[in-house]
Structures are given as structure tokens and as C-alpha cells.
Please model this.
Amino acid sequence: MEMREIGLMVLLFLMQLAICEIGFLVAFSRRKHFVWRLLFGLPCWVLLSMLSAILPGLLPGNENYVIGHLKEFVYFVAVILLNALLVYGCFEIKYSGALFTAIGTYSIEHIASRFTYIVKACIYADREVPPVILYGVFDFLIPVLFSLGFYFLLIRKSIADKKMLYNDRKVLIISGINLFICLALSIFEPNIGDGSLESILVLCSNYGCVILACALCLLTQIGYFRENELDEKNRILAEMLEVERKKQNLSKETIEIINRKCHDLRHQIRLLEEQSPEQRTDSLKNIRDAIHIYDSLVKTGNSSVDLVLMEKKLFCEKYDIKFTYLVDGKRFDFMDDADIYAMLGNMLENAIESVQTEPDPEKRIITFHARAKGDMLYISMENYCSKPVKFKDGLPETIKNDKAFHGFGVKSIRHIAESYGGSVRFLNENNSFLVEILMPLPTAKAA
Model:
């Protein structure tokens, strides 16, 4: 086969892969400088794919049955891995997710191409396919139709959900098995033959089995993905119920603090009637101190932020925790109220739990800042932490025994930040634990 023919075949194959991949990519957020990344990555993908198709042919052993098929196997694997690298470089997704996408894409392309082979065998077995039909229908239109069909029937309900996870090992293992089966079926398949009815029937039945096998592999791959999603949702639901229980207990403690303040005020007001002027002065000072918490209501410019800070402030007062904050609440207006409460609440709850264990009250310190930093919302929370914190995948590990429920807070913080296109950093050094969040402001996105 000449170099020109090999190049044309590779280009057609890559074009069909790109068409079948669109259904997977519509849900992914683009990386910064997406256009430049694509303009650089796409030619690299094409060039390296062509090299992986041409170079093995220059090596000896093409006549050997095993070596010849092994070279084909290496070519297809190289194309898929490079495709995953391109997706990873252009979209906000881990490489494991990009690999999952590339393998699913190849399954759809394989089904579409084998369907076109059946049509060719049935209609054009003994004559040449017109170029318009070959390139316009078989190489372009049919992959588009299969891509749209799989998207609306299967992918949209699963992969298009941005909350799904791709780093599950079992999902990747099943994806790898799917890839191996599709490659094996692609390499070890018959030719069209002599155009006789018998050869056409054999080819159609063979390709029909290939299509069915690839479809079942893809269904298994995405079906397990859905099962994994349901397990994740059930786990999150259980964790949220646990969080709500903790918040309910915290609210009860907050109410107890307020009730205690009211009780003290009533008691001190009764004493005022019986005290001398000097004693009355001291009592009035105590009353002012008691109602100081009400005189210093949190007013940041956002009611949800105010609610979180006020609740945590009351709790900190009960446990002698020094809590200082400087927050521009208006910068949170682009966020959903539930996300604000969950993110800030988890940050402060983790900080409170940490400093509560400090025996020295002078070290129970929490500082919280939120402000605009250029076109980004910058949030930082720092607390004293004398015990070293272990990290896994960039997240602090919980030291509590029930790991199924605990440790959810930091995952929730990262998930919420990333859902707004932001990032989170956790840092532990010099007896201090720091959480920093950066999220693009809406004005920045619009620009």
C-alpha cells in the first residue's frame, strides 16, 4: 500500500473518530486557551497517528501473520492513546476520563464503520462505490448519524452529566476490556470476498456479530458507569444526611447560646432595681457585653454568607475560639445559596473541629477572608493546627474512624469550587492549616 493511500485511510479514520467523539465532549468545560491548544494538538494527533501507521510497515516481518496483526494492534492503541491525550489537553478532565472517552468513541466508530461495510457488501459488492457515496455517505453521514444516535440514546443521560467520576478503577478496567475486544474484532475479520451471495452472507453475519459485540461492550462500559454513579449518589446522600444531622445539633447549640444570653439579661435586669449606682454601672457593663453579639450582626452584603458566619460566630464564642473575618459578601452573588452555605459551612466546621482540640485557648484561632482578586474571587481560611495533616490526592485525610461519612466536607468544597470553574488548595505548614479557593467572577467569564 502506498504512502498516499495510508495517509488517506488514517485521515478518514481520524475524521470518523472526531465525529463520533463530539457526543462525549459537549459536556466538558474547555481549558484556558482552548483554540490554541486545539490548533496545536490536532495536527500533532494527525501527524503522530500517520507515523504510527507508516513506521511499523517499514520494519521487517509484515509477511508474518502474528507480527503483521501485532503492528495493526499497536497502531490502533497509539491512535486511541493520542486521542485521549488531545482530549485531556483541550478539556477540563483527568486523563483517565479522556481515556474513557477515547475508548467509547472508538467503539462507536467501529460500529458505524462495520455497518458501512455491510451496506457496501450488499449494494456494491461487484462494483465500485461512487466517490460521492463513499466519502459523503459512508465516511461522513453514517458516522454522524451513529454519533447522534448513541448520544441521544445512551451518552446524554450518562456522560453528559458533569458530576460523574472517571477515575474509578473498575470503570477503566471494563473500558480496557472493551478496547481489547473491539481491536481484536477489528484486526481478525474477513474481507469482502468474491462478491458471491455466500461470501456476502458470511461477511454480513460476521460484521453483524462484531456490531453486536461492540455495542454490548459499550453498553457494559457505560452501564457500569451509571451503576457507579448511583452508588456515588447514594453515598453522597448518606453523607449529606449525616451533615444535616450535625448541622441540626449545631443549630440547637446556637439556640442554647441565645437562650442563655436572654436568661442572663433577664436576671441582670431584675438586679438593677435593687443595686446601688456603683453596682448598677458594673451590671450595665455586663449587659452591654452580653448583647454585644447582637450589636455586631454580620453584614457582608450577602444574606447566605451572613447566615453562615453568624452561626459559626456564635458557636466560636461558646468554645472560646477567636474568629475574625473580612468578607466582601457581594462577590458571592453569582453562587447558589445552597452552594455558599455548603462550601463556607464545611470550611468553617472543619476549622472549628480542628481548633477545638487545642488545649490552649490562646491557640484557638480562625481567620477567614473573601475578596475580589483581579477577575477572581479569592477565599482563604486559616486556623491554628499543631498536629500534622496527611494528604491524599491533594485533599486532607480524615483522622476519624468512620471514613465513609467523614472526609466528605473537603470533597464537597472542591466539587463546588470546580463546578464554578475554580480551584482549591489545601496547605499545612508551620502549625497552620490553610484553605485557598479561586473562582472566576461572572464579569471575567463574560469578557
